[in-house]
Amino acid sequence: MKGVTSRISLNMPRINQLERAKVEALEMTGEAIHTDLVQSQTMPRKTGALQNESTFVDTSHSNRGKVQIVSSTPYARRLYFHPEYNFHREPWERTGFKRENGELVFDVLDEGEGNPNAGGEWFAPYLAGGEKLGFAEKAFRKFYQQRAGV
Asked: What share of the chain is helix, strand, coil (3-state, %, to 5)?
């Protein structure tokens, strides 16, 4: 029996490029889901704080293969896990009167924008059985191919 010799040469710059592309694609996928969520208008909305300023993609562990969409408000959990709530879906104005110089004057007390599809469990369409199942996988594949050049 003859001895077999093999020599393997790894293209480390290319491997590193693919590793970077993987992390960037993962981060971009998280942002794509967040953007789609906002555009779907499914999160409860009064001022837009929950879906815009208070919900963000946490990429602090993306190099370990993990990104999270985080809502940092104390009421987000309550709204998410109670789809039975009667969510306001249209713009509204709550009005009243106030006193100025001893006279009652009309005043807008509260305004909100509403989301037409507002409800709880706004990530359900992306999970098993949801109509957007596969959204993340397709987005990741597209972003990875772009970033990796494959």
From this structure: 40, 20, 45
> Distance (Å, rounded) from C-alpha 125 to C-alpha 109?
35
Interatomic CA distance for residues 51 and 64, integer angstroms: 26
Q: At what angle do helices 135-148 and 12-40 cross, to 10 degrees?
A: 140
Q: Is the dihedral of CA 66, 71, 74, 75 positive or negative?
A: negative
Query: If DSSP codes are grouped into helix, strand and coil, which group holds residue 44?
Result: coil
What's the first-to-final CA gap in the chain, in angstroms? 41
User: Which is more confidently placed, 111 or 127?
Assistant: 127
Confidence of residue 106 (pLDDT cuts 50, 70, 90): low
Tokens representing residue 32 in the block: 């794509």
Nearest residue to 113 via CA among 47, 52, 42? 47
pTM: 0.79
| Radius of gyration of the chain measured on its C-alpha atoms | 24
Whole-number percent of the chain with pLDDT over 70: 86
* Residue 73 DSSP code: S
With tokens 């009421």, the residue in question is 75
